[in-house]
Inverse folding.
């Protein structure tokens, strides 16, 4: 039987500001999914990148007094640097303005939609938010202001190419209702269903070359227009697979994948769950299987935003607390729905949870084995106090699979932590340090503890790859020095 294939992507951010904590959350979520599937033996491809072709980037380059190419390149490097900083495992990183795979792919997608009769020209006048790079219906504004950016949109009138979205209402409803196009969590799926049921209007998929300031991909056969940045950006999910040249990668990782998962923030759900699937239906290509939506982070109660500044720098947090602590806070504290407020004392509490509960468990287990069984632990049946721990270990893999299968990171981390808690309870109940050094019961206790530590480390890989590797080395070498230095303790936690 061939291996299951799993393709997962993050959204590609505009580079008009520095990477903030909210995007770090998204990267870590997608990384957890990718690492989990690799751990289960699936073939995985994980893509991230940057959205270079936005008018916002041109404006930010102007403000910085730099040529657009230079500004965009330097900013994209800051995003790419998150890979090492956060211990990410993506296989590919696409930059839409310079990657030679991108423009041919967008052109092919455009031509496929045109061939299906879904692109037409029309004069248009509307309210455009450059922050969103989107037109708004007046009913979608709050007191005339974009709810996402808190600024009034500008009135734009021009002749554009339109995509016949209205034609795909029924097909989209059928795909979502049947589960062929999955959207999670459930309330996001309902939000999309009610939006589609409310009727879909065709949307503009080009801008005048003039208004785009010449930045972007020219419309095939119409050089007076550039491709709308969202049509361009959404295409990255397939252009990075050589869709433009009809390459083998596209057949393997899009057409041939068992799952195609987009991890995104709630602000761009309509683009991913409505526009993008409609473009793919028009082009005759398979749909994503899952859109996994996360909510936003606030920092000390303030909204994060690149353009508004004040976004907490993931690099500074990692310098101070380490990548393990930040990744653990993301998976363990950020709720499935509802915005999460980041505060340093919450992060410190999670860092100390790692050190106190998991670090101590591994450390104590190694110390007990070295003290009482330096020549090795003999096979022995577990004592009856181990029943709850053995049962929790037996459930663990399945519990994590079920949770991450639905992009429920917090439930997966909680399942893992239940086992850590149970293992610590087991140590307290059996008090192995008081046992005679020759008892069979002691061997039974240590066998269970070693097994628990090994299983916890194994299942920890998707969440904290660095810590999991350190625990495995410490256990293998039975090294008390390594056991003591698994996690950084932090002062000033809540
Ligand atoms: Zn906006």
């Amino acid at each position: 039987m061939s291996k299951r294939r799993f393709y997962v992507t993050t959204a590609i951010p505009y580079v008009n500001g520095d990477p903030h904590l909210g995007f770090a959350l998204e990267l870590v979520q997608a990384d957890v999914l990718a690492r989990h599937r690799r751990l289960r033996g699936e073939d995985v491809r994980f893509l991230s990148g940057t959205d270079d072709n936005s008018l916002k980037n041109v404006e930010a380059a102007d403000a910085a007094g730099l040529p657009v190419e230079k500004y965009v390149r330097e900013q994209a490097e800051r995003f790419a640097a998150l890979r090492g900083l956060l211990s990410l495992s993506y296989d590919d990183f696409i930059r839409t303005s310079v990657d030679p795979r991108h423009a041919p792919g967008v052109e092919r997608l455009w031509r496929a939609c045109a061939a299906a009769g879904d692109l037409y020209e029309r004069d248009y006048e509307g309210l455009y938010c450059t922050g969103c790079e989107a037109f708004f219906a007046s009913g979608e504004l709050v007191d005339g202001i974009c709810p996402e950016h808190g600024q009034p949109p500008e009135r734009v009138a021009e002749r554009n190419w339109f995509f016949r979205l209205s034609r795909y209402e029924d097909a989209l409803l059928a795909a979502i209702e049947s589960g062929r196009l999955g959207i999670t969590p459930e309330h996001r799926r309902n939000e999309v269903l009610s939006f589609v049921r409310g009727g879909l209007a065709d949307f503009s998929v080009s801008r005048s070359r003039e208004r785009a300031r010449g930045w972007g991909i020219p419309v095939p056969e119409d050089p007076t227009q550039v491709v709308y940045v969202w049509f361009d950006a959404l295409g990255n999910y397939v252009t990075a697979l050589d869709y433009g040249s009809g390459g083998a990668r596209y057949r393997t990782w899009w057409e041939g994948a068992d799952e195609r998962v987009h991890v995104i923030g709630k602000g761009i759900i309509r683009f991913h769950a409505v526009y993008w699937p409609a473009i793919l239906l028009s082009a005759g290509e398979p749909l994503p299987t899952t859109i996994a939506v996360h909510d936003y982070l606030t920092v000390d109660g303030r909204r994060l935003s690149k353009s508004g500044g004040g976004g907490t720098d993931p690099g500074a947090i990692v310098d101070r607390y380490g990548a393990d602590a930040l990744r653990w806070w993301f998976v363990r504290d950020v709720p499935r729905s509802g915005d999460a407020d980041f505060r340093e004392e919450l992060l410190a509490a999670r860092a100390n949870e790692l050190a106190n509960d998991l670090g101590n468990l591994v450390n104590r287990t190694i110390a007990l084995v070295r003290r009482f069984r330096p020549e090795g632990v003999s096979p022995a049946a577990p004592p009856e106090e181990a029943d709850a721990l053995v049962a929790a270990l037996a459930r663990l893999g399945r519990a994590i699979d079920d949770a991450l299968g639905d992009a429920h990171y917090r439930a997966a981390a909680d399942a893992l932590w239940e086992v850590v808690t149970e293992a610590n309870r087991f140590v307290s109940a059996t008090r192995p340090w008081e046992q005679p050094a020759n008892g069979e019961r002691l061997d039974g206790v240590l066998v269970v503890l070693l097994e628990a530590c090994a299983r916890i480390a194994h299942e920890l890989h998707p969440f904290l790859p660095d810590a999991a590797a350190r625990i495995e080395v410490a256990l293998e070498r039975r090294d008390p020095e390594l056991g003591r230095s698994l996690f950084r303790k932090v002062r000033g936690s809540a």
The longest strand covers residues 119-129. DSSP finds 19 helices and 16 strands in the chain.
